[in-house]
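Everyone, describe these structure tokens:
***
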Amino acid sequence: MISCLLAVWISWLVYSSISSPISSLVYGMKQLRIGNLDAKLANNRQDELGYLTDAFNQTAEQQRYLILDIYEQQLRMTKTEL
């Protein structure tokens, strides 16, 4: 009985420390794919998964700025053509 409880506890630890952050990153990537450029993931980790989460947030922010910049450039080109 104790070994079963220990196995459940260890599997929960693995899930909460590894699988849950990866699932969060996958969810954020899906949000970016469908066009939600405001996707930002919470990060309270200081390990490799925290670094990946920070990199994801920075990438999403850069994409949002790039798309806004391209949109503004197209608006300026349209105004100059008029």
